Amino acid sequence: MSRTATGRSQRSGKAGTASAPWRNWAGNVTSRPAREVSPASAEELAEAIRGAAEDGLRVKTVGTGHSFTSIAATDGLLVRPHLLAGIRRIDREAMTVTVESGTPLKRLNVALAREGLSLTNMGDIMEQTVAGATSTGTHGTGRDSASIAAQIRALELVTADGRLMTCSEKENPDVFAAARIGLGALGVITAITFAVEPVFLLTAREEPMTFDKVTSEFDALHAENEHFEFYWFPHTDNCNTKRNNRSAGPAAPPGPVSGWIEDELLSNGVFQLACALGRAVPPVIPSLAKVASRALSARTYTDIPYKVFTSPRRVRFVEMEYALPREAGVAALRELKAMVERSPLKVSFPVEVRTAPADDIALSTASDRETVYIAAHLYKGTPHRGYFTAVERIMTAHGGRPHWGKVHTRDAAYLSEVYPRFAEFAALRDRLDPDRLFANDYLRRVLGD
Hints:
Elements (H helix, E strand, L loop, with lengths): L1 E2 L5 E2 L4 E3 L4 E2 L6 E2 L3 E3 L4 H13 L4 E3 L15 E3 L7 E5 L4 E5 L4 H10 L2 E2 L11 H6 L16 E7 L5 E5 L4 H7 L8 E8 L1 E2 L2 E10 H6 L1 H7 L2 E6 L5 E10 L8 H25 L4 H8 L6 E5 L1 H5 L7 E9 L3 H14 L8 E6 L14 E9 L5 H13 L3 E2 L9 H7 L3 H11 L8 H7 L2
Parallel strand pairs: 6-8, 7-8
Antiparallel strand pairs: 1-2, 3-6, 4-5, 9-10, 10-14, 11-15, 12-13, 12-14, 16-18, 16-19, 17-18, 17-21, 20-22, 20-23, 21-22
């Protein structure tokens, strides 16, 4: 056994005084925790949480740092869950999988595919941990299938008093109703049980389309496809659409050369160079956008779900995303396009549009309403305040809900108006964490004190 700088006994190699600041993936958030811990079990985590409370330290957990907000930042105890990883059990009768909270989605997807299983829906990045992704409301696009958190059937978390609590529709259902997207405010998740299904095939159809065509036909495209999304390239009238639908097969993945050209050379390598040039010389961005929007050609391929839903994202960026009532999506997007065209802004990254059905999670961005997501991005290191402020003004005028892990300026006063179950979540937080052990500046802003 060894002792930390605070004098609390810890297992050697599992905890210690933090020696360097923590930074998120995008590099726009930095914090310096007093100490860090990497528990290998729920018991070790509970011990660390009790110790932090005794020492007057706040507690936050960080996975891979893919949030663009300071939701994981702390000057207290930083929990790194990478040792809490792997599948605990697969229940083929109930069709569920229970996985440790620090497991990366990529590892889960590969392991499930090996077992002939799959999640029903997922986002387009799979580097995040399962707890980090679900706690912030990570989602893909879907007409009928919702976010990753909506696929949770049970979860286990350590509460502020060091208790290990299991939650499901039958056990602690009030906690389950909120903790699936808990923002790290209710406790530290140690395991999640997801619904799964036999692995299936998806056929992806990617196709360029004009902005006017995709917006005028948006309702039909949404209704006719299980998973529809598109990207609009600012400073152009060009979009790239993607339709994913279940297929009887056979599998027909992209060829190794064509797949590399589309997904690595063009979408990452060439795009990285274009973004870097645009950041250095902003006036060239509209010309680059016209070239970029025409670089990706139409293609169709069929593969297992995670190989269709997800894509490599090696170009770093910052992002703002808002969830709007689905009927408001096209109007808001047209307002966004008009704003960019009449402003001096130079926007190098495409705007992403996705959908989700209504769900029953208290702080889900799709809680109780069918939803369209509009996401604005800018290349890492590009000043983003002017663009994001203008985007946010449009989105909030339509009652938009900001993604919990992406840049926004909303506070508890605003959020309590757009979330009908906000007070329910706040009351549960008061009960589970009355002393705000899991608080930080971000949670104080979005949830209040």
